[in-house]
Write a structure and sequence with these properties.
By secondary structure, the protein is mainly beta. Helices cover about 15% and strands about 35% of the residues. The chain has eleven helices and 57 strands. The strands form 15 sheets. Strands 50, 51, 52, 53, 54, 55, 56 and 57 form an eight-stranded mixed sheet that branches. A five-stranded mixed sheet has the order 10-17-18-11-12, with no helix packed on it. A hairpin with a 3-residue loop joins strand 26 and strand 27. It is extended. The two termini are about 75 Å apart. The relative contact order is 0.04. The N terminus is likely disordered.
Length: about 850
C-alpha cells in the first residue's frame, strides 16, 4: 500500500517548466568572491559545476550559511535527477499543510516525499524554512541511495541509527555536532560523500538485507549516483612536479580544478640539506623517506647518480640527485658527476616539498622548485594568443595557456618564476612586499625594516646579490623602502618608491678617533642630535687615527649597534652618480657644498627664501635651493644645537666670517641637509622653553645618548608634548629622578637654562605623582558628552579647559606617531579597544584636566 501511495504521488509530479528564486550560478568554487573562506573546496567545486549548488545572488557562496529543510530537498532532487530535470518539476498537490502548492520548493519537497526520502514532522507539517541538521540531511541522503525501506530511521532512536549508518558509509565524515544546524559547505561535503562514494542499494526481502543495486541485466552493478550519471575522477589526470592530480568530468567534459589524493607532509624554504629534513633526530625533521623515492626539480624527474658515476651524459647546469651526499645538484662539468665541482641546488628561498603518495607516513616524492627573480621591463606582449615577457629568458611567443596568470602582470612588477621543463609551462608569481624604513642592516646577512629582520635570498648570487645588498644598505634610514620577498620570506629585490626625508640617512662627521681596536666618531644628525658613536669594522673611516672633519656621510646602524659610514664621494666636477635615495631621474646629481672661512666672507641664511644661502664674497646667491623638507642644523655651543625643518621655519642669521662655515648636502640642486657650525648668536626663536606644567608622554624607552661635552651627557626621548610630536631632553644624572627610561605620561614642572628637563612627575613610572592624580578608565569605549567623560563603568567631570589627546602610533611612517587633539564631539563613543585611557585629575578638585588615549603595545 505504501508503494502504491508513492506511485500515485509521483504521477502528480509533472515535468513542466518551473521558475526558481533569483540566484547566481558559478562554474566552480573559484568563481565565488569568498572562495578563500571555503574549506571543503572539492565538494563545493563539483556540486557547483554540476548545478547542484548555487551562489547567494551577490557572487558569494556563504560557506557558513545555514541550510533550510526545503533547500535540502532541492539538493537531494538535483543529485537524483540532475539540475535540468529538477528545474522542470512542478506539482499539483502538496503532502504538508505548511507547504503551499505554489511555494518555490513544493516540487522538490513532493518529489522527495513521493520517494520516501522525507516524511515530515508527523503532524502533517514539514517546516520548510526550518534549518536542517546534519543528522536530518544524512537521513535524506541514506534514503536517496536506497536505505530506509524498513523504516529503520524512524522512531525515538532514528538519529542514533542514522548517524551510525551514515558514518560507517563515509557520508558523515566531519567531526561536528550532527544535531546542530548544518552549514552550506558541510551539506556540500555530506552530499559529495554520498554522491561519489556510496553505491545505491535495494532491499532483498528474501535475505532481509540491503544489496548493491544492479542494472537491468541483473549483473552489472549500478555503483554510485556519480557513476550512474557518468561523473568520475579517473578520465582526466595529469602530473605536476611529481604529484598526480585529477579533475572531475561528466561525459568527458572537465568540471573542476585539479585535486590530488597525495599529501604534502611538509615544506621547507630554508635551504637546509635534505638530510636535516628527513632525519628524525633533526630539529627540522619533516618526514622519513620511503625505500623508493622520486626526485623532481622544477617539474622534471631527476636521474639518481653516485659520485663519479660513469657513462652519464649531463649538460652543464643540468640537475640530478646525488645519492652519495643526499643532495640535489647541478653539473659543473659536462658528462661528469663530481660532487666536489657540482653545486647544491638547495638555498634559502628554494621550495622543498616532501610528499606522501600512499597510506603510510613516509615520503615517496621530493619536489624541489627553484625560482628565478626578475623585474619586468614592460607589460606582457600578447599577439595571436602568444605571450612575450622580455625580462624572463625564453618567454618569447609562448602559447598563452603555457603562461597562466600573465594577464595579471604589468610593467615594473618584481616576479618569482620557473619553467616546468617537462610541460614547458612558465609559472610566475608576484613577489610579496613590505614597505617602511630600513632600521639597520648586517652586511651580506640581513636587513631590518620596521623592527622585523629579513635575511637575503639564495635565489640570486654573485654580483646580483651584492647589488641587492648595496641597494638595501643605501636605503638605510629612508622611509618608503620596499623589500620584495621570495616564498620563504627572504629579500630578493629592493627599491624605493619615494624619498620623504633623505637627510635622515646622513650624518655630519666632525671628528674621528681610533684608540686600540675601537674607532669613534663625533656626528651630528639632521634632527640636531649630537653623539659619539662606535664605527663598525666595515665602515668608512674605521681604523683612522684622525680624519678630515666636517664631511657628510651616509650612515646605517648594524645589528650590534655600531655605525656604518659610507662616503658621499665627489668627482672632479663635484658630482657623484645618483644613489638609491634620489627619486626623480637616473641623470640626477648629488652634490655637497662647503663654505670656506676667509676674511670678509659673510654668509647669510635667509628664512623663506628658496635660494637661501647668500655669499657676500661671491657677490651673488648660490645655486642651491631649499624647500619644505630641508633639514637645517645650527651648532651654537657645546650645550646647544638647534634643528629646524623647512625654509619657512629656519631663522635668518648672518654668519661670523672668521668662525662660521655652512655645509650643504643637496640632490638635484635642492639642499636636503644644511649644517652651520660656530653660530655666535642664538636667534630669539631658539630660546629654550622653561614652561612648567607641560604634559609629556614618553613614547619609547629607547633614548638617544648625546655626549655634549667631556662632563655633560644628555638623553633625548621621542615624546609628544601637550599633543605635539617632538622630543624632550634630560641630563643623564637627572634621568633616574625623571623619566628613568620608562614610557608613560609625565608632568614636567622644571627646566634648566638649556631647556633640559629637571623635574618630571610620573603617572606610573619611576616616581609617584605628587601634584596630580592619573588613573585609567576601565572598559573599551570612551564617551565624552556635556563636560562628562565616561566608559560605562566610571564617570568623571571634565574641567572647562581640559584637553583630549589621541596617540596613533601606527599611522606615520617618518615619526612613528601622530597625535590628534580631539574635541568632545569627536570623542563621543570613541572606540579605544586595545588602548590605555589615562585621565589627569586636577590638584584642587576632582575634575579631569587632560585625557590621554594611547596604545601601549604599538
Amino acid at each position: 500500500m505504501k508503494n502504491l501511495k508513492k506511485l500515485l504521488a509521483m504521477v502528480l509530479v509533472v515535468v513542466l517548466a518551473f521558475g526558481l528564486m533569483a540566484t547566481v550560478s558559478a562554474a566552480n568554487v573559484s568563481d565565488y568572491s569568498d572562495a578563500d573562506d571555503v574549506t571543503y573546496t572539492e565538494a563545493v567545486d563539483l556540486f557547483t559545476a554540476l548545478g547542484f549548488l548555487q551562489g547567494m545572488g551577490d557572487n558569494t557562496f556563504d560557506p557558513q550559511g545555514l541550510v533550510t529543510r526545503e533547500q535540502a530537498a532541492k539538493i537531494i532532487t538535483y543529485m537524483l535527477i540532475g539540475s535540468v530535470k529538477a528545474d522542470a518539476l512542478t506539482t499539483m498537490v502538496t503532502s504538508f499543510s505548511d507547504v503551499a502548492v505554489d511555494r518555490w520548493s513544493a516540487p522538490y519537497i513532493e518529489y522527495c516525499a513521493a520517494l520516501g526520502i522525507i516524511n515530515g514532522n508527523g503532524d502533517g507539517t514539514f517546516n520548510p524554512a526550518g534549518n536542517v541538521t546534519g543528522a536530518q540531511f544524512a537521513k535524506m541522503l541514506l534514503c536517496a541511495i536506497g536505505y530506509g525501506v524498513n523504516d529503520e530511521y524512524t522512531g525515538a532512536n532514528w538519529a542514533m541509527k542514522t548517524i551510525a549508518d551514515a558514518t560507517s558509509l563515509g557520508i558523515l565524515s566531519l567531526d561536528l555536532d550532527f544535531s546542530a544546524a548544518a552549514a552550506r559547505e558541510e551539506v556540500s561535503q555530506y552530499g559529495f560523500n554520498a554522491y561519489t562514494k556510496c553505491n545505491t542499494v535495494v532491499y532483498n526481502s528474501t535475505t532481509h538485507a540491503y544489496q548493491q543495486a544492479t542494472n537491468i541485466d541483473g549483473v552489472s552493478a549500478k555503483g554510485s549516483l556519480a557513476t550512474q550519471q557518468n561523473v568520475n575522477n579517473t578520465t582526466s589526470t595529469y602530473t605536476a612536479n611529481g604529484t598526480t592530480y585529477y579533475r572531475w568530468t561528466k561525459g568527458g567534459v572537465e568540471l573542476t580544478s585539479g585535486y590530488t589524493k597525495e599529501k604534502v607532509i611538509g615544506t621547507s624554504t630554508m635551504g637546509l640539506p635534505l638530510s636535516m629534513l628527513t632525519d628524525s633526530s633533526s630539529a627540522f625533521y619533516i618526514a622519513t623517506l620511503d625505500t623508493t623515492v622520486a626526485y623532481y626539480y622544477n617539474g622534471t624527474v631527476l636521474g639518481q647518480y653516485a659520485d663519479g658515476a660513469a657513462g652519464v651524459t649531463l649538460a652543464v647546469g643540468a640537475a640530478y640527485y646525488n645519492t652519495t651526499v643526499n643532495k640535489v645538484m647541478t653539473a659543473a662539468v659536462a658528462n661528469t658527476i663530481n660532487s666536489a665541482a657540482d653545486t647544491d641546488v638547495l638555498a634559502a628561498g628554494v621550495i622543498v616539498k616532501l610528499v606522501n603518495t600512499d597510506s603510510d607516513a613516509k615520503a615517496e616524492t621530493v619536489q624541489v622548485i627553484k625560482k628565478a627573480v626578475a623585474k619586468l621591463s614592460g607589460d606582457p606582449i600578447v599577439s595571436n594568443n602568444m605571450v612575450t615577457i622580455s625580462a624572463i629568458p625564453g618567454l618569447a611567443s609562448v602559447s598563452a595557456v603555457k603562461v597562466p596568470g600573465y594577464d595579471t602582470l604589468k610593467d615594473k612588477d618584481v616576479v618569482l618564476w620557473y619553467k616546468n621543463t617537462t610541460t614547458g609551462t612558465y609559472y610566475i608569481d608576484k613577489a610579496t612586499t613590505v614597505t617602511g624604513t630600513v632600521n639597520n642592516y648586517v652586511s651580506s646577512t640581513s636587513a631590518t625594516l620596521e623592527g622585523t629582520t629579513y635575511k637575503y635570498t639564495g635565489l640570486v648570487t654573485g654580483a646580483t646579490l651584492t647589488g641587492l645588498q648595496t641597494t638595501v644598505q643605501d636605503a638605510a634610514g629612508l622611509a618608503d623602502t620596499t623589500l620584495y620577498l621570495d616564498d620563504g620570506g627572504y629579500i630578493c629585490y629592493a627599491a624605493q618608491a619615494t624619498v620623504s626625508n633623505p637627510a635622515a640617512a646622513y650624518a655630519f662627521v666632525t671628528d674621528v678617533t681610533t684608540a686600540g681596536f675601537t674607532t669613534t666618531a663625533k656626528i651630528i644628525l639632521s634632527d640636531g642630535t649630537k653623539s659619539i658613536v662606535t664605527l663598525d669594522a666595515t665602515s668608512a673611516l674605521y681604523g683612522s687615527a684622525t680624519a678630515t672633519p666636517n664631511v657628510f656621510y651616509k650612515f646605517a646602524v648594524s645589528s650590534s649597534g655600531n655605525y656604518v659610514l659610507t662616503a658621499v664621494a665627489l668627482d672632479a666636477g663635484g658630482a657623484v652618480a645618483v644613489g638609491a635615495e634620489a627619486a626623480a631621474t637616473a641623470t640626477a646629481l648629488q652634490n655637497t657644498y662647503a663654505g670656506v672661512a676667509a676674511a670678509g666672507d659673510v654668509k647669510t641664511i635667509t628664512k623663506g627664501n628658496a635660494y637661501f644661502l647668500t655669499d657676500t664674497v661671491a657677490g651673488n646667491t648660490t645655486n642651491i635651493q631649499a624647500n619644505s623638507s630641508t633639514r637645517f642644523v645650527y651648532y651654537y655651543s657645546a650645550t646647544a644645537t638647534y634643528a629646524y625643518t623647512g625654509i619657512a621655519n629656519v631663522p635668518t642669521f648672518v654668519s661670523n666670517e672668521a668662525l662660521e662655515n655652512v655645509y650643504a648636502l643637496y640632490i638635484n640642486g635642492k639642499a636636503v641637509f644644511v649644517y652651520a657650525n660656530n653660530v655666535t648668536a642664538v636667534p630669539a626663536a631658539f630660546t629654550p622653553s622653561t614652561t612648567s606644567g607641560d604634559w609629556v608622554y614618553i613614547m619609547s624607552a629607547n633614548k638617544t645618548v648625546n655626549y655634549v661635552s667631556a662632563t655633560l651627557t644628555t638623553y633625548t626621548y621621542q615624546a609628544f608634548v601637550n599633543g605635539t610630536v617632538g622630543t624632550v631632553t634630560v641630563e643623564s644624572s637627572k634621568d633616574a629622578a625623571t623619566f628613568n627610561g620608562l614610557t608613560g605620561l609625565y608632568q614636567v614642572t622644571g627646566y634648566d637654562a638649556n631647556g633640559y628637563v629637571t623635574i618630571a612627575t610620573a603617572s606610573g613610572g619611576a616616581t609617584t605623582p605628587v601634584t596630580v592624580t592619573v588613573a585609567a578608565l576601565a572598559g573599551d569605549t570612551l564617551t565624552i558628552s556635556g563636560g562628562v567623560v565616561a566608559d560605562g563603568t566610571n564617570t568623571r567631570v571634565l574641567n572647562s579647559s581640559a584637553k583630549i589627546w589621541f596617540v596613533d602610533k601606527t599611522a606615520a611612517a617618518t615619526t612613528g606617531v601622530i597625535v590628534y587633539e580631539i574635541t568632545g564631539a569627536q570623542a563621543t563613543a570613541l572606540d579605544s579597544t586595545g588602548a590605555v585611557v589615562d585621565y589627569v585629575q586636577s590638584a584642587t578638585d576632582t575634575s579631569i584636566t587632560a585625557v590621554y588615549i594611547y596604545d601601549t603595545n604599538a
